[in-house]
Every structure is written in structure tokens, then in C-alpha cells.
Amino acid sequence: MKRIALVTGASRGIGRTTVEALAEGGFDVVGAARDPADVPRAARGFALDVTDDASVAAFARRVADELGGWHVLVNNAGVALDGFDAKVARRTLDVNLRGPIRVTGALRAHALEGAVIVNVSSGIGELSCLRPPLRARYASGELSEADLLELADRFVAEVADGTHAAAGWPSSAYAVSKVSLNAWTRWLAAELGDRARVNAVCPGWVRTDMGGPHASRGVDEGAASVVWAATLGPDGPTGGFFRDGARIEF
Ligand SMILES: NC(=O)c1ccc[n+]([C@@H]2O[C@H](COP(=O)([O-])OP(=O)(O)OC[C@H]3O[C@@H](n4cnc5c(N)ncnc54)[C@H](OP(=O)(O)O)[C@@H]3O)[C@@H](O)[C@H]2O)c1
User: Fold this and answer.
1) Domain that holds residue 211
2) DSSP symbols for 177-203
3) What is the CATH number of the domain that holds 58?
4) Is-above-0.90 flag for pTM?
5) C-alpha dihedral over 210, 214, 220, 222, to 10 degrees?
6) Would you say residue 77 lies in a domain?
7) In this predicted model, what pLDDT tens digit does every residue of 63-112 receive, in sequence order?
8) Which site among 43, 128, 149, 150 is 20 to 30 Å from 181 CA-CA?
9) Ligand 1 pocket by Cβ (under 6 Å)
């Protein structure tokens, strides 16, 4: 039986190339996209908007009913929006942090033996983007999913009232979303224990719609880090942050 891989944000960029590489590598791949017609032919295209609870629930139902579950989940869908205000902060965290939390929460019950989860993050979300004491809180490894969602709400509220910088947050919703995603990755790895390998990956700066034409890496090179983490065996690492298969600092 082929291993089943689910990849969010499969319409373009790193997600699309990851779908193609996993299909080439012998996986039965579902490409999840807001418009499934955009998913490459190597995969089945399922509709998914990671910000929409009903869409996420319908996606999880299809995975359970039509595939019987999944082995690999790549939480890749993400945004890097222009500008910086409370609206941008809320939307960025909704896609980049709450998106993976929603999708993983809905799919968790349908994980098959040897499950692997990859959260596509960014070196921009390293801990140094936060000032103490916030940095120490995120570094502690003690923040739960609920704590991280509460802190994300606090960030948005503090952006709205102009106090976020004094509180130690950067003026980048993208950085906050990825440092939160990294902290959540550690929490999820501990939560799932032997039931799954869970890692965050930075693909580097990649020439996609998000990375722009001047980025240093082609999309194949960026996707290779994701594919590496998606194909880890049961003895592979869990709860880490990796680029090009090598551990990097949170
Ligand atoms: N490119 C880089 O240099 C770089 C560096 C570090 C990390 N990353 C991370 O790598 C991941 C992929 O980035 P990329 O460069 O491939 O970006 P991209 O080319 O802009 O593609 C983003 C993908 O996310 C999907 N998406 C956005 N909002 C969504 C939503 N609400 N529901 C479902 N899908 C949604 C998009 O779908 P639509 O087509 O429907 O919009 C698209 O498939 C992101 O998590 C990004 O933060 C990228």
C-alpha cells in the first residue's frame, strides 16, 4: 500500500513542487488548495481553505472516507502580507498559525501508523525576533497550543493599540506567526510522542510568488527540505527545526 501524503497550499510555489516530488517518490498524494483545479495532475486535488472551519472539517471527512487516513501531513499553506496593522496581524496568524492548528486538529484522529507532520516555517521566525521576557517564554518549550493561541491574540490586540513593540514583539506579523509555529511544533511533537514525527522546516529564501524573483533558491531546492522531513522514518527526529536536513536554532 502506498503511503498517503497531504500537502496544503498545493496550488503553487513550494507546496506544488512538494506534491510533485512526493508523487514521484511513490506517495499517493492529496494536494489541498482553495481551488483544487490548481493542484498538479500527479495528485488528487481536494478543496481546502485553512482559515475556514467548515472547509477544514469537510477536507478531513474526505481524507477519512476516501483514503482511510493519512501518513504524511505537510502544513505548507502560508501568507506574507504587505503592510503592518492589526488586520494584517490577525489574517497572518489565522493562516500561518491557526491554519496548521485547525488542519492538524481535524486530521489527528485519522493518522495512520508511522505518521509524519511537517510545518513549513521560516528562519525569519527565530527566537531572536522577540525581546525578553517574551523570548524566554517562547524558548522555554513550555507553551501549550492554548497558550500560543492566547499569545497570538495578545499580539494582535497590542498591534491594535500600538503597544506591541513595548511588549517585546517585532513589527512583523509573519515573524510572530513563524516563531509561534515553531513553538507549536515542539508542543505537538511532545503531545503526539511516538504516534508521529513532527518537525518544522525552513526552505530557505525561495523564488516563488512569496519569495520573489530575487530569492537565492529555486523552488526545487526549497521543496527538498520539506520532502526530506516528510519522508523521515520512525527513527527520525521529532520536535526539531531543520533546513537542508540539518538542525537549525529555533
Ligand atoms: N518563498 C520563501 O522564500 C519562503 C521562505 C520561508 C518560508 N516559506 C514558507 O513556505 C510556505 C510556502 O510558501 P511559498 O513561497 O510557496 O508561497 P506562495 O507561492 O505564495 O504559495 C502560498 C500557498 O499557500 C496557499 N494559501 C494561502 N492562503 C491559504 C488559505 N487560507 N487556505 C489554503 N491555502 C492558502 C496559496 O494558495 P492560493 O493559490 O489559493 O492563494 C498557495 O498555494 C509558506 O508557509 C511560507 O511561509 C517561504
Assistant:
1) 4-84+94-123+175-244
2) HHHHHHHHHHHHHHHHGGGEEEEEE--
3) 3.40.50.720
4) yes
5) -60
6) yes
7) 999 999 999 999 999 999 999 999 999 999 999 999 999 999 999 999 99
8) 43
9) 8-9, 11-15, 33-34, 48-51, 76-79, 95, 120, 122, 202-203, 205-206, 208-211, 215
